[in-house]
Amino acid sequence: MTVLIDAEPEPIPVDWDRAALVIIDMQRDFLEPGGFGETLGNDVSLLQRAVKPIQALLERAREKGVLVIHTREGHRPDLSDAPRAKLERGAPRLRIGARGPMGRILVRGEPGHDIVPELAPKDGEPVIDKPGKGAFYATDLHPMLAYKNIETLVVCGVTTEVCVHTTVREANDRGYRCIVPGDCCGSYFPEFHAQGLAMIKAQGGIFGWVSDSARVLAAL
Ligand code: TIU
After folding, report:
1. Catalytic residues, which ones?
2. Does the beta carbon of 32 lie inside 6 Å of ligand 1?
3. Could you tell me the distance, in angstroms and rounded to a whole number, from the CA of residue 158 to the centre of ligand 1?
4. Which of the four pLDDT bands, split at 50, 70 and 90, describes residue 18?
5. CA angle centred on 90, ends 87 and 94, rounded to 5°
6. pTM value?
7. For labeling, which of 55, 57, 170, 205 is most exposed (least CB within 10 Å)?
């Protein structure tokens, strides 16, 4: 059944049977005190704010049988899937693969790479391990969505202007309608968060639609 989600630049009709909730990179290293994000000097409470609203959406999506997909940013332990240009960046002790406070930074299988316990994936919910910022690059997300006839994505997570934005741009170019609930996203830079959301909905919704958890929940 199609329902209308209130959003900007305009309300958008959504068939929940053909929609997915995509939760981007809610990983311990980005969100938890003592993790990689905080080691870089970031205020992780700015990201923590998104946990509760995402939890509300996640619980309702599960109740209603809406497809839920989780993503994690990270690399193979041998780093063979990480381009040198990415590996070289940052101070040597804070580079990808270096030992961080929660294990090797952005390496699969390390404690910091896990999704925070409040949003832990349930059996049957696909988890996309992605080597890039976008969830489509070098992953099987696109065929996975195509096999289920998905046309609309509710995209949330961290960080707004990096992995959420990249994913929304990739999805938009692949023909998906993206709705971004702003309070379910977070950035270490409040101004980037605000501008990131503004960019999505500008020019008649150039990349998609912006809403919030209350309005999405009302339509779910
Ligand atoms: N998931 C994600 O956004 N990865 C990042 O590296 N984000 C930063 O803002 N650094």
Report:
1. 25, 130, 163
2. no
3. 7
4. very high
5. 90
6. 0.98
7. 55
